[in-house]
Inverse folding.
DNA sequence: ACGCAAAAAGTGATCGTTCACTATAGTCCT
DNA sequence: AGGACTATAGTGAACGATCACTTTTTGCGT
């Protein structure tokens, strides 16, 4: 019935002041910048703080200063693995002296947008970094009161697309494969609702055409391994690609599985590429060629943008690539006969 | 230079009261429970709130009520994929009316413990759920002021171990394999600093002995795929297990790779089991037998415990198993000859 | 010794809400 | 019709810290 209530009251700044025989204001001064205190006073205050094990009440401080020193990260529930991105973002924020909270919002765009508005107006956050898009109609209201940076990969008919949607590695992979002698490509795309999926799809189409290679088309999947298998099954028997560009590693694993099902050897008959550098990809047989995405840096950059907006500083430009292609066993030269095909 | 500062001042409860021609207290009453207001008054207040687009300042409210309605989740930076666990935990908390923030703390046990203490004393959280262990010395200080529930999987010489450390699925897997005719086992353990790794190791040893099966020993790995490969390489040429129990799917993938390297067929010569039900495991060849862990429920239960502690309610007992074994291609009957071995 | 500026410390008000009371109006019973 | 209640609304203080001032102390030159 009592239990937790046995706790004695938290000491306040006044308690410290009384013990140190100074005014609260002096203690406050000590807490905010260690200056303007006589050595003797300073010592008394320090001793009192230590003795009471005092820590300032941040809520009260926020109340007076109108600053919370806390940021929120709003993210879609159940996105792909966001933890690395968060790690980068929160490290950057902490370096600038901010607390970071991660608030997840389920549901679609609308409830998420409303949640964001609610957060922005709660007075608890100075800035909000949204890793998911919000309704354009909300955005106007938002920026009036709290700095909000939206850095969305996902997108449902929304304008800005984040850096994750950059699909240039697809271009480089296809170029490399063509140089190896590949001529017939096939793409298994991710869920078309995602900007990144659409960007990869488009990059695939553009690049294959630009290089004058043949495309057996695009299978519109949903990021799942099953879609990879189905994509291969859907190919007519006289159409065998020499290389399949999968939307991500999971799809790629499905593609490899599907190819084996049809008796095609990977990479002997077909090369396969993925995306994400999933842990086990390295140990599969064949190990998976993939794109490693520097999610930490991505998160860090997004957060840097938010902080820059908050302090009215210009964000430092940074054009280091976030992507790195890792070539592994699932890609090789095309089978000898393939070059002779019409 | 100005930019964000164009924002007009947020309306306060007093502004609303003035507009509605009532006292602030009346507005406050409206906000907390919609009762005790005359319909006419209620309507005036509602109208004023709508007109000003007023939202209560939660910091100020917290200040007065001494309740923040916010919880923090402290988690180790870079743990295995925590997002599913978080999803479960935050859903449960929100159902009880709490905000949930995720605060990540890098470094080891000590910095994490200090961070936790800091959080607990910041006055911003009513309860904290730590998914990582803290120093025992800190714990005493902690519980005096803020309810803290530590639900740690990881552990360095710490007492309580979380449910993740439950290794009974290992027992069931071995029993099943023995029933299939397997007789020579081998275990590749995870990092010994983790309670879960130690529990799985111990369950392996106990069960193999209890069933009178032969064990080729335990290789102490570190959860990595490389450790799986090395474990297989380390086996002398005359010692070939019929089944390998790997600490998780990544290790299992390494084991499969290592086995192939030595010319052993999986599952023809050796069966392999993993743990975690990683996405691609299903599409590997052979697809991976594994243990699916219901992380959502785990997170939800941990949070329920915290909330129960906060409200002095008894947590509802719940003994639904969090684990489910998924049998796939990587496990099968042992090779015929193996039964004849000494 | 004196004056005067700089350094150090203190005072009262305030941030936006809610709590514990008090005051007023409306209702019902005998 | 008077009194006892209940429903509704208002008042002043308080939560814990910091801000903008004011006051006291210290240091220094002449």
């Amino acid at each position: 019935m009592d239990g937790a209530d046995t706790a004695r009251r938290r000491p306040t700044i006044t308690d410290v002041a009384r013990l140190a025989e100074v005014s609260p204001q002096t203690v406050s001064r000590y807490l905010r910048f260690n200056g303007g205190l006589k050595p003797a006073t300073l010592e008394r205050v320090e001793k009192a703080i230590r003795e009471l094990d005092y820590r300032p009440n941040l809520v009260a401080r926020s109340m007076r200063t109108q600053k919370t020193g806390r940021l929120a990260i709003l993210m879609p529930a159940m996105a792909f693995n966001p933890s690395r991105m968060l790690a980068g973002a929160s490290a950057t924020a902490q370096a600038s002296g901010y607390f970071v909270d991660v608030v997840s919002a389920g549901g679609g765009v609308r409830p998420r947008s409303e949640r964001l508005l609610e957060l922005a107006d709660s007075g608890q956050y100075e800035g909000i970094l949204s890793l998911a898009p919000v309704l354009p109609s909300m955005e106007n209201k938002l920026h009036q009161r709290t700095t909000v940076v939206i850095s969305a990969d996902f997108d449902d008919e929304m304008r800005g697309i984040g850096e994750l949607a950059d699909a240039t590695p697809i271009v480089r992979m296809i170029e490399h494969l063509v140089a190896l002698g590949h001529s017939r490509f096939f793409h298994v795309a991710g869920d078309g609702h995602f900007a990144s999926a659409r960007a990869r799809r488009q990059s695939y189409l553009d690049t294959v055409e630009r290089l004058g290679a043949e495309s057996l088309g695009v299978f519109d999947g949903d990021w799942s391994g099953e879609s990879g298998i189905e994509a291969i099954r859907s190919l007519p028997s006289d159409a065998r690609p020499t290389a399949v560009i999968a939307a991500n590693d999971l799809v790629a694993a499905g593609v490899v599985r599907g190819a084996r099902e049809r008796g095609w050897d990977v990479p002997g008959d077909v090369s396969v590429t993925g995306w994400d550098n999933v842990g086990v990809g390295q140990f599969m047989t064949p190990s998976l060629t993939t794109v490693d995405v520097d999610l930490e840096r991505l998160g860090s950059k997004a957060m840097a943008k938010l902080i820059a907006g908050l302090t009215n500083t210009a964000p430092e430009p940074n054009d280091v690539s976030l992507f790195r292609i890792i070539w592994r066993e699932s890609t090789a030269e095309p089978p000898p006969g393939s070059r002779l095909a019409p």
